[in-house]
Amino acid sequence: MKIWQADFYRSPLRDAAGQVLWELLICDATRSFEYEASCPQSAANSSWVAEQLELAGGEKLPDIIQVFRPQSLSLIEAAGRNLGINVQPNRRTFALKQWLQEKQYPLALEKPPPAPLPENLWGEQWRFASLPANDVETRFSDRPIPHLHMPEFLKPMNIGLASTVPIPGVVIYGGRQSLPLARWLHQARPVALNYISGAPDGLVLEAGLVDRWIVATFEDPEVTAAAKMYEQRKQLSRGLHFLLVQPDDSGMTYSGFWLLRTED
Predict the structure, then answer these.
(1) Is the pLDDT of residue 18 over 90?
(2) In this structure, how many other beta carbons lie within 10 angstroms of the beta carbon of residue 72?
(3) What digits encode the pLDDT tens for the residues 108-165?
(4) What single string gives the DSSP state of each residue in 1-53?
């Protein structure tokens, strides 16, 4: 499968007349393939992007284009539709971000303040948990879980974790809302679940490209201590953690499981 990472955004550069330029950057995950082109802002549209994609691809267009910048997504999606290319929003375009850093282009994205989860989806209770790295894949990979997100690059073995390293996580007991909550989370595309200290303290889910959601708030000192331990374990697990949604604590049925990793 041929996968590209792409960005199309205003460049810090200007043309000879001083006009703003938009720059298209395309690469693959290893940067063995790179393509760049620019145009004046007046020509920055999906038709121009589609033409460049065809020029970059030659006889073989990509199957997937990953885009991390919200402002780039709609134009690249429109170009992709015209060419039959699946365009996917994805924060983890590491090769492309490295290229942008080398060019000293701004990478920071404006993120909205976190919003509360929809009230009709919230579960009955939740808790912090941990699993040995060896158990993460064996416990969940073969179970009939409706919403399972365990990409190869996030499996503990593939990021160099020993089998005994504890992987921290959060378990939500959803009761009757377990499956609707898991379905909503699947659509939101979870990325990381972080403890944020404050008044009150909270758990904030990073999702999609820039979305942020308040999963829980708490003021109990014991819960805060557990949250701090959760963050300490994330450091030991190289940022790897999990989110598990299940109806109850019987362990018989799971509604959703996501392997997550704190962004670099």
Answers:
(1) no
(2) 21
(3) 888 889 999 887 888 779 999 999 999 988 888 778 899 999 999 999 999 999 999 9
(4) --EEEEEEEEEEEE-TT--EEEEEEEE-TTSSSEEEEEEEGGG-SHHHHHHHH
Q: What is the domain-level CATH number for residue 18?
A: 3.30.420.10
Say whether both 199 and 245 belong to one domain: yes
- What is the rounded distance in angstroms from the CA atom of residue 207 to the CA atom of residue 228? 21
Element holding 76 (H helix, E strand): helix 70-83
Angle ∠(167,169,173) on CA atoms, nearest 5: 145
Outline where 123-246 has alpha helix (H). 133-140, 178-188, 221-236
Contacts of 198 (CB under 8 A, 6+ apart): none
Q: How far apart are the first and last CA of the chain?
A: 26
Question: What is the distance between the alpha carbons of residues 136 and 167, in angstroms, rounded to a whole number?
Answer: 8
> What is the pLDDT of the chain when averaged over all its residues?
93
Classify residue 246: in a domain, yes or no: yes
Question: Do residues 182 and 146 lie in contact, with contact meaning Cβ atoms separated by under 8 Å?
Answer: yes
The structural domain count of the chain equals: 2
51 & 96 share domain: yes
> If 0-12 CB within 10 Å is exposed, 13-18 middle and 19+ buried, where does residue 222 land?
exposed
Of the residues 65, 80, 102, which one is the last residue of a structural domain? Answer: 102
Tell me the per-residue pLDDT of 37-91, one tens digit each, with 9 for 90 and over.
Answer: 999 999 999 999 999 999 999 889 999 999 999 999 999 999 999 999 999 999 9
CA distance 226 to 127: 9
Task: Tell me the β-bridge partners of 17.
Answer: none
